[in-house]
Design a protein that fits this description.
The protein is of the alpha+beta class and about 80 residues long. The chain has helices at about 10-25, 40-45, 70-80, and strands spanning about 1-5, 35, 50-55, 60-65. This is Thioredoxin domain-containing protein.
């Protein structure tokens, strides 16, 4: 999850993201990347809007969800783990 503390949609998605991370903790690793602290990672993955969720599998991007879309995020996770 690429996020920023000042971004309202990021704050809205924090609880669902953490719930998914706990529920799927044995199948995947969930990370939060603060866009203000890790600008090199933001550039590497071409993050242009917040929140952005990337699903990486063995270093390859398998999916991306941009925005506060709980259903889309859940679907992409379930389809790839």
């Amino acid at each position: 999850m690429f996020w920023a503390s000042w971004n309202e949609p990021c704050r809205v998605m924090m609880r669902p993201f953490r719930a998914m991370a706990v529920a799927k903790r044995r199948a995947a690793i969930f990370c939060q990347v603060d866009v203000d602290k890790f600008k090199d990672i933001v550039e590497r993955y071409r993050v242009e809007a917040l929140p952005t969720f990337l699903l990486l599998k063995q270093g390859v991007e398998k999916g991306r969800v941009v925005g506060a879309k709980v259903g889309d995020l859940s679907n992409i996770i379930m389809a790839n783990i």
